[in-house]
Structure formats: structure tokens, C-alpha cells
């Protein structure tokens, strides 16, 4: 085991520049650390980067999903269509907003929702579709939006993995209805925690802006700054979902680096593809045939347990013993007890998602990862499988 005694290599690690750290320190020294001028600058930077009309920074992508779904003012029994291959927050926020999640299986050769199966799931109770751009690979949006327009449905893109991704030469966030980004530490850019809603709908933007800070008609910066007024009105019940300037201080330096981050992620993903192409133990992610640029948030192949001679849990444990971190993204959401018991979902309902769920493994992938780091991962896997 001596060949694998180096430092632990996690599956993900944020890349933080000295300039970003200095910006956080400057924010702390300014005495203004909650929502303020840096958040506003970050929102403007998001609009400039994506080409989107409205940007609203928030405490998390979960907050963004909740507020955009809450703006639909769902009534009991109304439905929102989404994918079973997603983090639980996608379904959780549908339920919290008052809707019923209706699931559609994923593509045969991919991890995204099968757009060709969505229409069969639409009923008179359907209000919206929430496609998930899994691992930063865009869903096939042209037919999805055509379907949504034909049925009068809202589209809220769960783009937690997809900032910087492109669909047919257009950046996610630049077009369509509404997109929700995540800036969690393992995402393509980070603000520590955080997220943002991008939308082309001015009314929805106003709803989210109001609801993210208690339903007040002005945020703290507007009340406590030199030109502000201490008075405010509560226009509607709201939440505490605002982003802080301390977070935006990171984002202001992360966003200009995003394209370089994606270039490096792409190099690493292609290097994995090259080295693992002939390994029977892996089924590599398939690329959609339509024009797109993936953000490569994850490199998540499927373990062929028969060829590997072990199940996923043993593989991950063996990699950890060799100081290599891996992760699971994700267990198919309909198999969690809450969704299974409340909505009657069962094993076998979405066989494609279930097959992925049982076999998927996220391998280390982050911009600061070196070729030598990746060679360690590949060597560790070769050792694991040789000893099976």
C-alpha cells in the first residue's frame, strides 16, 4: 500500500485566488458584511456573464428553487414534472411550495430527463417542468421549451451544476424562462454557500426579490446606508434567503475565472475518457448529439460491478484506503422513504434512473487537480481492480 500513502485527494476542492481572499478580508474590514454593494456587483456580473435579464443572489440554490416554485402559488394537487436523477432539494422544494412532484425517467444513454417522455406525464394539473442539467450537461432545451409553450407551462431549470454550460452557443441563463444556479463549495464557482436565480420574467424577479428578505420593500443596505431610510413595509410574508457581501466577495473573483475552470475540467474529463476508454469496469458518460458545452461539474461514470468484481461501496472504500476520495451523485430520489411512502413510488418505476443510481461514482475532478493527481486516481483504480 506504500505507493498510495500521499495526501488524501478529495473528489472536489474549491479554487480560491489570493485576490478573492483579499476581497473577503476587505469586506470584513469595511464593517458591511451582510447584503450590500458587493452582492449588487455580483448580480450585475452574473447578468453580464450569462446575458440574462434578471439576477437575484441568494443563500443557496435550494432557496432559489423554493422561491421560484413558491411564486407559482401552487394549490394542493397541482403537479411539477422533474427527474428522479437529482439531489433531493429539487423534489423537496416542489413539495414545500405546495406541489406534487411527478417524475419522468432519464435518457437511455444519459443522465438527463428524457424530454421525449415528458408529454405523457402532463395532466390538467401540471403547472411547471423542472429539468435538471445533470453534471453540467444541458438538457435538450429546444424541444422541452416547445412542449412547455404548447401546454402553457413554466420551466424552472435546475442549473445547480450548470453555470458556464452552453446549449447551441447560448449560455445557460441567457435564454428561456428561469434558471437556478448553485455556488456550493463543490460547484464550478463558489461563494462558500450561495445560489442565484436568473430569469427573463420581470414579475418573477420582483417576487423573488421581495420574498428573499422577509417580504420587506427594502433590504438592509437601503435602510442603514447613509442615503437610506430606516422605515420599511412588509409587502408579503417572506424568508431569510439573502446572500451576504462576504459571499459575494468570493463570487466577484470566481466568476471571471469560470471559463478557465471549465477549460481545465474539460481537459481532465477528456483525459479520463482517454485513459478509461477500454476499461471494462467502467461505462463512461455519453455526450448528447446536439451542440452544447458541458460545464463538467462532475465526471461520473457507471461502475460495471460484474467486470469490477465488487460493488460500489467496496470500490469506494478501497479507493479511500488508497487516499482517493469519491462520491455518489445521486441515489434516485423516488427511492427515498419519504417519496416512496407518500407518493407510492417503487423500485422498478424508473429503471434507467435506478440503474444509474446503483452504479454511479463521481471521480475526483476540480480545476487545481494536476495531471499527476489524476494519474494517482487511475493508478489506484488499476490497483483496486487488479486485487479484486
Automatic annotation (TrEMBL):
Keywords carried by this UniProt record: Aminotransferase, Pyridoxal phosphate, Transferase
List, in alphabetical order, the Gene Ontology terms for molecular function in this entry: pyridoxal phosphate binding; transaminase activity
Q: Which Gene3D superfamilies match?
A: Aspartate Aminotransferase, domain 1, Type I PLP-dependent aspartate aminotransferase-like (Major domain)
Gene Ontology BP annotations: polysaccharide biosynthetic process
Assigned protein family: Belongs to the DegT/DnrJ/EryC1 family.
Q: Per its record, how is this protein called by name?
A: DegT/DnrJ/EryC1/StrS aminotransferase family protein
Originating species:
Acidiferrobacter thiooxydans
Instruction: Recall the taxonomic lineage recorded for the source organism.
Output: Bacteria, Pseudomonadati, Pseudomonadota, Gammaproteobacteria, Acidiferrobacterales
